[in-house]
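INSTRUCTION: Work out how this chain folds

Fields: amino acid sequence; protein backbone structure tokens

Chain under study, with its fold:
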Amino acid sequence: MPDRRLTSFTRRAAALLAAAVSAWGFACPAAQAGPVLERVLGQRSVRVCIWPDYYGITYRHPRTGTLSGLDIELSAAFAADLGVKLQYVDSSFPSLVPDLVEGRCDVAMFAVGILPQRKEALRFTRPYLQSDIFAITTKGSSTVRQWADIDQAGVAVGVQAGTFMEPVMAERLKRARMVSIKPPATRERELEAGRIDVFMTDYPYSRRLLDNADWAQLISPPQPFHVLPYAYAVRPGDDAWLSTVDAFVQRVQQDGRLEAAARRHGLLPIILR
């Protein structure tokens, strides 16, 4: 018989969990909402970690402070699906793991690359984007004109510290010197100043340079170099919350919201349906 003691909160949590379990396609052994979803619904707020310098994904305009990007749109949709307020927490790739594990945010929604070392510390949804590595240099560069020029003696190759490009390039570069760039320094300023000859980035960030810098030259790998899937991340220990976030990813892949947001931000070539 129905349990009339169930509050609307509990019923809502159970409904959300049921939807997540259905999306995953197997029965969940725990018939509970889980601590994170309970807190989110109880406080009517979800805390979303973003990296506010990720053009096309989660980007804060330096003059207006306005946030834009694919994951700004989708995080708003996620909060709306849950019926809660959205609270952004500034994060970064180097601080991603502690921000989640120590509870400063409930979910990271900024195209987080699924790396082996991150998988040891976090839990990931199904991927919704994927990108290879691209190179950015200056037009008219006398040092780097094509992909084969990158891994050569005397070439300084910049990577953003904490991104998946850092361990990949550390392994792949045999002759060139890798330079890890940490805030407040930026790859663009280091390149323009001549302290690096080229920097490596992914597809979303490359759009920032091509859209805004007339000096930037994109160099694509002649064949796939290191294609990486991107997903949303949560801290371990709450499978119900992971299922809830994963079910959202599946919904936006199927109902067109991912495709529509990707089209608005020039990211259609890298979405996973």
